[in-house]
C-alpha cells in the first residue's frame, strides 16, 4: 500500500463511520429497555458484531489491507469460533439430552 | 529536537528507517501491519478464554447470573462505550494526519485519544469503587444474600477478570500512545514512515472492539429478567 494521498481515507469517511457507530450504540442502548425475551442478547450481540466490523474495516483499514493481513485477522475470529462452538455445543445441549445417571454438574 | 529529519525527503527517510530485508517503505509498512494483526489474533484467543468461561457459566448458572447481572451500572457502561468509540475516532484521524505528514495535528489528535482513554479508566475506577461499596467486587468478601449466592459470586469473579484484563490492556495502550506522542513530537514519524503510529492505532482499536462485546454481555443482557 503506497502512501500517496489519493489512497488515504477522507475525514468524511471516518466521520460517517463514527456516526454509524454512535447510532448503533444508541439503538442497542434503547433496545435494552424493550423486552424481546431470549432474542434480546442475540440482537445486542449482532449490533456489537456490526460495530466491530465497522471498526475493523474502516478504522483498522482492513478494507484496504493486503490479502495476508486479512487472512491473519480472519484466523483469529475463526479459531475463536471453534473454541466457542465446540465448547458451547456441550454446555447448551446438556438440558436437552439428560444423562442416564446423575451427573455432578452443576454442583 | 536534535534528531530533526527533513520529513519531506523520501530518500532520506528511506535511508534512515528502511530495514535491509525490505524492498521499499510500502512493503515494510505492510509487514508491520501483518505482524500486528497476527499479535491481535493471539489476543482474540487470550480474551476468548474469558468469553468462553463467561458463556459456559451463563448457560449453566442462568438463574443466578440473571439476578446478579442487574447490579452493573448501565449508565457508566454506556458512557464508557461512547468514550471508547470517540477515542477510536480520534485515533483513526491521528493515523490519517501522520499519513498526510501533518505532525502537529497528529500530536493533538493523539493527545485527544489519550485523554479519552484516561477518562474511560477513571470512570471504570469509579465504577469499581461503587461495586466495592455495594459488596459485589471480589475483594475481601462479596455480599450477596439469598439463593444463588455461589452463582452470583461466579459472575462477579468473571466480570472482574474480564473488565480487569481489558483495563490492563487500556493502561498499556495509554503508555504506548504517550510514547508515540513523544516520538511524533521529536519528528521521528512522517508521511513516508509512520508504522509505529499505525500499529499503535491497531492495538487501540482492538481494545475498543473487546469493550464493544463486553458491553452487551455485562451491561445489557439482564435488564429484563
Describe this protein's structure.
- The complex is a heterodimer of chains A (107) and B (225).
- In chain A, 64% of the residues lie in helices and 0% in strands.
- With 107 residues, chain A is mainly α.
- The mean pLDDT of chain A is 87.
- With 225 residues, chain B is mainly alpha-helical.
- Helix content of chain B is 76%, strand content 0%.
- The longest helix of chain B has 37 residues, at 149-185.
- The radius of gyration of chain B is 21 Å and the shape is elongated.
- The model of chain B has no long low-confidence stretch (mean pLDDT 92).
- The chains are: A mainly alpha (107), B mainly alpha (225).
Helices and strands in order, then pairings?
The complex is a heterodimer of chains A (107) and B (225).
Chain A: H1 11-31, H2 39-59, H3 67-93
Helix pairs in contact in A: 1-2
Chain B: H1 10-17, H2 25-60, H3 62-68, H4 74-99, H5 103-134, H6 149-185, H7 195-220
Helix pairs in contact in B: 2-6, 2-7, 3-6, 4-5, 4-7, 5-6, 6-7
Amino acid at each position: 500500500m503506497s502512501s500517496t494521498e489519493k489512497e488515504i481515507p477522507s475525514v468524511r469517511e471516518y466521520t460517517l463511520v463514527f456516526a454509524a457507530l454512535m447510532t448503533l450504540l444508541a439503538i442497542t442502548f434503547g433496545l435494552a429497555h424493550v423486552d424481546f425475551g431470549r432474542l434480546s442478547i442475540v440482537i445486542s450481540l449482532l449490533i456489537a458484531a456490526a460495530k466491530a466490523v465497522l471498526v475493523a474495516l474502516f478504522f483498522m483499514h482492513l478494507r484496504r489491507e493486503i490479502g495476508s493481513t486479512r487472512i491473519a485477522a480472519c484466523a483469529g475470529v475463526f479459531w475463536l469460533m471453534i473454541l466457542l462452538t465446540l465448547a458451547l455445543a456441550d454446555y447448551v445441549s446438556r438440558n436437552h439430552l439428560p444423562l442416564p445417571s446423575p451427573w455432578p454438574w452443576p454442583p | 529536537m536534535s534528531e530533526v529529519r527533513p520529513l519531506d525527503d523520501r530518500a532520506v527517510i528511506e535511508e534512515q528507517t528502511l530495514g535491509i530485508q525490505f524492498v521499499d517503505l510500502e512493503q515494510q509498512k505492510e509487514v508491520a501491519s501483518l505482524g500486528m494483526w497476527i499479535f491481535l489474533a493471539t489476543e482474540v484467543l487470550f480474551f476468548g478464554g474469558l468469553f468462553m468461561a463467561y458463556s459456559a457459566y451463563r448457560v449453566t448458572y442462568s438463574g443466578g447470573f440473571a439476578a446478579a447481572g442487574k447490579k452493573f451500572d448501565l449508565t457508566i457502561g454506556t458512557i464508557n462505550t461512547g468514550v471508547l468509540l470517540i477515542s477510536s475516532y480520534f485515533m483513526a484521524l491521528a493515523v490519517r494526519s501522520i499519513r498526510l505528514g501533518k505532525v502537529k495535528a497528529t500530536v493533538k489528535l493523539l493527545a485527544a485519544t489519550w485523554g479519552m482513554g484516561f477518562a474511560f479508566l477513571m470512570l471504570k475506577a469509579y465504577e469499581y469503587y461503587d461495586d466495592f461499596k455495594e459488596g459485589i467486587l471480589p475483594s475481601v468478601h462479596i455480599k450477596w444474600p439469598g439463593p444463588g449466592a455461589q452463582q452470583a459470586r461466579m459472575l462477579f469473579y468473571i466480570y472482574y477478570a474480564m473488565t480487569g484484563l481489558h483495563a490492563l490492556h487500556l493502561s498499556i495502550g495509554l503508555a504506548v500512545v504517550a510514547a508515540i506522542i513523544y516520538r511524533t513530537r521529536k519528528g521521528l514519524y512522517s508521511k513516508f514512515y509512520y508504522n509505529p503510529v499505525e500499529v499503535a492505532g491497531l492495538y487501540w482499536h482492538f481494545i475498543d472492539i473487546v469493550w464493544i462485546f463486553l458491553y452487551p454481555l455485562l451491561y445489557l443482557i439482564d435488564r429484563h429478567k
